[in-house]
Design a protein that fits this description.
Layout: H1 13-18, E1 25-30, H2 36-47, H3 54-74, E2 80-89, E3 92-106, E4 116-125, H4 134-148, E5 153-159, H5 163-171, E6 175-179, H6 182-188, E7 193-199
Parallel strand pairs: 4-5
Antiparallel strand pairs: 1-2, 2-3, 3-4, 5-7, 6-7
């Protein structure tokens, strides 16, 4: 396994001044095995705290994420993909800064038992590279793939207190489909989950 000392390559102040945003190129591609260490780090940083006692558990959580991703890439499902956003510039190459997974799940509700639907998960951007459009680019590619798979609906969950993510999803046309019970959230001691939905059309654009 690769070393866990993964850090997206940082530019020095002088290099930042030398290259404008126009010199940086953001591309989206399918995840390859060499990306897994970086992807696991980005997901762990985005969804797990390193404060207090959680700091001791962080390496184990990151390792678990790595192994789950490795297993899914080694045994891919027909309708499943993991994408990464990669930033390149004159001084950097293949710097993975964001990731997302797209798959097809089956509904367990009484009204739609057995119905399949595309579902987004693990959308995460490295903290040092947020607000650069990486999340939007990943979402656009997922919508394109969803249409190619023959679906017109896309779903994802977001935490009620994640205002920045909710703002992004609403801006891109996602709307609230279902809100988790408040009693369930209080019992588990965490923010409620909101299921968002977007209806895609062949002419849908961002």
């Amino acid at each position: 396994m690769e070393s866990w000392f993964y850090h997206p390559k940082e530019r020095t102040e002088s290099k930042t001044a030398a290259y404008s945003d126009a010199t940086r190129k953001l591309t989206v591609r399918t995840t390859i095995p060499a990306d897994l260490t970086g992807v696991a780090q980005i997901i762990a940083l985005s969804f797990h705290s390193q404060k207090g006692l959680w700091g001791w558990a962080f390496p184990l959580l990151r390792l678990g994420i790595y192994e789950d991703l490795r297993h899914r890439l080694a045994s891919p499902a027909p309708h499943h993909t993991c994408l990464v956003a990669v930033e390149t510039s004159p001084d950097l190459a293949d710097n993975v800064i964001a990731t997302v997974e797209l798959g097809v799940r089956f509904s367990d509700s009484w009204t739609q038992l057995g119905k399949s639907f595309p579902y987004l998960s693990n959308l995460a951007v490295h903290p040092n590279y947020r607000r650069r459009g990486a999340a939007s680019e990943l979402l656009v590619h997922c919508e394109k793939l969803t249409r190619e798979w023959g679906f017109q609906d896309l779903y994802l969950h977001v935490l009620e207190n994640n205002h920045q993510a909710r703002q992004l999803y609403f801006k891109l046309g996602y709307r609230v489909y279902q809100v988790e019970s408040r009693w369930n959230a209080l019992f588990l001691g965490r923010s409620r989950q909101i299921l968002l939905h977007k209806r895609l059309t062949p002419s849908s654009t961002i």
